[in-house]
Amino acid sequence: SMANNMMPALFVNHGGGPMPVLGQQPEVKDFLSEYGEKLKQGTLPKAILVITAHWEDRQVSVSSGKSHSLIYDYSGFPSESYSLKYPAPGEPSVAEEAVRLLKEAGIEVRSNDRRGWDHGVFIPMLCMLPEAEVPIVQMSLVAGQDPKTHWDMGVALRPLREQGVLIVGSGLSFHNFKYFFARDGRSQEEGRKHSQAFATWLTDTVTNPDLSPKEREERLLKWQSAPSASECHPRGGAEHFMPFFAVAGTAHGAPGVEVGKEYGEMMGLVVNQYEFLN
């Protein structure tokens, strides 16, 4: 049956710039590479749709080329990080299907066969599937950081999972540079507490089996009133959390599971990754 080919949707921590592939964030790399190994033991996805925190556009934009160059959209890193390669093919037919599904749901969308894949795509993919054997389609966020907009995108894209496409949201559940680079013990401790409070709320809301799909959606969409939300994602700086909503939306309100718990820390802060199997 269709359901047996159902691919998961996954929200991942893509790390800081190219650090995971430079050996500087092993916790990010190890989770992703283990996930890739697990994928290879089953049926490989026919394509991976990566919704990246590093592309915000006026409408949903979808990479539709047969192949795409890479955009090294980070600065101040060692020279080898500007010659990384990820030669996976694009998958125009999946891009077309994504465009069709979004249009059908009344969501404004356009194809883009020119823009390269940014590091929100190629860094996690280098960790997950270093041989680049699965075609990739990159998808943008919609400017404005509205969770409902991204949830609705996910709802519309669910049929792709039934067609063998793995949907990956690439971002971070905590993204506040003030705390990433805190040097004094007090700020570091504050950041850790905020990240822990938000993580606890998020995991409970994602996984709680007693919530109805509607309740889960409503609680997640009101994320800004969650504990420590604005310390984890400052107002206007929540783009790294938006891919989460698209991923969760593909499950239509069904619960997800926290994955990679043993890797749930980055730069001393608590970060979470989730998989939706329903």
Could you give a quick summary of the protein structure above?
The protein has 278 residues and is α/β, with parallel strands linked by helices. The protein contains 9 helices and 10 strands. 37% of the residues lie in helices and 18% in strands.
Q: What's the layout of helices and strands?
A:
Elements: E1 9-13, H1 26-41, E2 47-57, E3 60-63, H2 92-104, E4 109-112, H3 119-128, E5 136-142, H4 147-162, E6 165-171, H5 177-180, H6 185-207, H7 213-221, H8 229-232, H9 242-249, E7 257-259, E8 265-266, E9 269-270, E10 273-276
Parallel strand pairs: 1-6, 2-5, 2-6, 3-4
Antiparallel strand pairs: 1-10, 7-10, 8-9
Helix pairs in contact: 1-3, 2-4, 4-9
Strand content: 15-25%
Principal-axis shape: globular
Q: Largest beta sheet, briefly?
A: 6 strands, mixed
Strand order of the largest sheet: 5-2-6-1-10-7
Q: How many extended strands?
A: 10
Structural class: alpha/beta
Number of helices: 9
